Amino acid sequence: MLMRLRVVLRRRGKLNSNIINTTLGLNHVSSYVKHFGSLRGAYSLIGYVSPRDCDWLDTWDHWAHEQTRHANELAEVLRADLGLEPELAQGNIALDVGGARLVSFLIARQLATRGPDHAPQWKAYRRQISSGLLAVMRLDATNKVVEDYVLLPPKLRAGRYVWLSSGSLARHRGVLCPEMSDLIKAIKARLAASNHAAPTMSAPSNKQAERGRPKARSGRGRH
Q1: Which of 93, 128, 158, 179 is packed most tightly, with the most Cβ within 10 A?
Q2: Closest by alpha carbon to 78, among 106, 98, 107?
Q3: Taking every pair of C-alpha atoms in the chain, what is the biggest distance, in angstroms?
Q4: What is the pTM of this model?
Q5: Looking at the structure, do residues 18 and 74 belong to the same domain, yes or no?
Q6: In 10 A of CB 32, how many CB atoms?
Q7: Do 177 and 111 belong to one domain?
Q8: Is residue 222 part of a domain?
Q9: What pLDDT, on the 0 to 100 scale, is given for residue 5?
Q10: Is 2 in the same domain as 68?
């Protein structure tokens, strides 16, 4: 693993996650994190110091676990409250119901601000997700703790990344949720509005009601 990484470094003059993941013969970044504890640890073994901050890459496994944990928590609520049978999908970060994508959980790291007068911005990797709701977990300034959640509608402009700011919420028709409980309520409200929830017992139709009623006798007698 390290020998090939060293060869690529010699050829390219630098290393980053995109170079590693797109170079034929190299393992995925997650493999280096798993084997060497962090991407920075793998770099140090071949004598390379990245000019970029590797902290975000080093915490990929942690946040992948958090995405799965959130998806499981939502699935339990949907089973208990709505009688649905959601299934984990997309690498255990999404939920499908009846074969259709319901929601996917994304991690949005907060970008460094240009100055005190600039509003914070977040960037989330969307992968190949093109359907279903997007439940975005926005991190705080340290990118170590979830600050809040944003629920985005399915019809969002396609792209590899989702960019968020305080001004973009209205444009994306996003719902800001301070806590996970608020996010669950918002998702359940969307389900109720789109009739995805399990149907309840409906009132009998007029024909059924008429069948159950005794026929009224005619006022006319037989001649």
Answers
A1: 93
A2: 98
A3: 113
A4: 0.69
A5: no
A6: 24
A7: yes
A8: no
A9: 92
A10: no
Residues 37 and 146 reside in one and the same domain: no
In a domain, 206, yes or no: no
Give the pLDDT means over successive 10-residue stretches in the chain (223 positions): 92 88 87 83 88 69 92 98 95 94 95 79 86 95 94 80 86 93 96 65 46 51 46
So what's the pLDDT on residue 126? 85
Q: Bridge partners of 125?
A: 161
Token pair recorded at residue 168: 């973009």
